[in-house]
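Lecture 7 notes: from sequence to structure.
We start with the chain below.
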Amino acid sequence: MALPIAAQFRLEPLDKRTLLRAHPFFRDLDARIVDQLAPRAVTRKIKKGTVLFRKGDVGSALFAVLAGVVRISAPSKGGQDAVFNLIVPGEVFGEITVLDGGVRTADAVAVEDGELMVIERRDFIPMLRQFPELGIRFIEILCGRVRRTSEQVEDIVFLDLANRLAKVLLLLHSRRHAESQPGVIRITQREISQMVGASRESTNKQLRKWQRMKLVRVERGGVLVLVPGALARFISDS
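Predicted structure tokens for the same chain:
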């Protein structure tokens, strides 16, 4: 029998301070920010496939990823999702609703088992008023995501599938190394195709071509980039 959600939270204050200080979003901020947030934050274990929220939901929480990967996407009436981002350990999501108090702008679903730290808006907004550097950090995140969204639109308009696919694989590969977990990118071919704006069949065809060239290895539920430099040349030559 599944545990109630409340039973999945760990409540030790010292552990939460340690986790916050280790998280890249919080670790170089004023120590007072961590000290004030830690007693109000909760950690939550999540299973692969857990729906954290849907587009249009009323939400009030900010999520910091401690372990695992969360997919951010928007559904269509035809059943085709647009995948905007994969949130990995060291990153946060849910920031738009926390800042404006509105509804969720996308779906958030766990791609693999993981752990999150959750901070409610009622606890976070006073901190933004008290510590301007925290607000600046949020502005930097939002600007980065706007830039990424603009780049995705430009890529779909101006680049062919091979270039778009190479850019996405290199981005995910670099983030795996940044979190000190080099290896297979845990993402399905369907999710990759949704990130590059192509059909699953076309994406699979290109991946298989690169596999024959020994640039990548396609596995069940993942892709391993074998020669990042070769994929980078697809982009530089475009």
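Points to note: The chain has two domains: 5-154, 159-236. The longest helix spans residues 132-158.
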